[in-house]
Write a structure and sequence with these properties.
It is a single chain. By secondary structure, the chain is an alpha+beta fold. It has one domain: Alpha-Beta Plaits, CATH 3.30.70. Helices cover 19% and strands 36% of the residues. InterPro entries: Fe-S_cluster_ET. Keywords: Electron transport, Iron, Iron-sulfur, Metal-binding, Transport. GO terms for molecular function: iron-sulfur cluster binding; metal ion binding.
């Protein structure tokens, strides 16, 4: 399972930061950063989700008001949102 984070879409509400510790506030940019992620496309960052963090990652995606966070299963299907 992986997370895809569209940083360009992020509006800096930082609800994801409260739900999963992989997201960190970047107050200089006014957006969240996804630790351990690699940039896959223009401002889209991707990383694998550890099994013990799947619940937190899914919740971070659910609380994002602009749907900048997507959870993708191993078959390539989008789970959240």
């Amino acid at each position: 399972m992986r997370v895809e984070y569209d940083r360009d879409t992020c509006i800096g509400i930082f609800q994801c930061v409260d739900e999963w510790d992989a997201f960190q506030k970047n107050l200089d940019d006014g957006k969240a950063d996804l630790e351990g992620a690699a940039e896959a496309d223009d401002d889209v960052f991707v990383r694998e989700i550890p099994e013990d963090a799947e619940f937190d990652a899914k919740f971070a995606a659910r609380v994002c008001p602009v749907e900048a966070i997507r959870i993708i299963d191993d078959d390539g299907e989008q789970l959240v949102p």
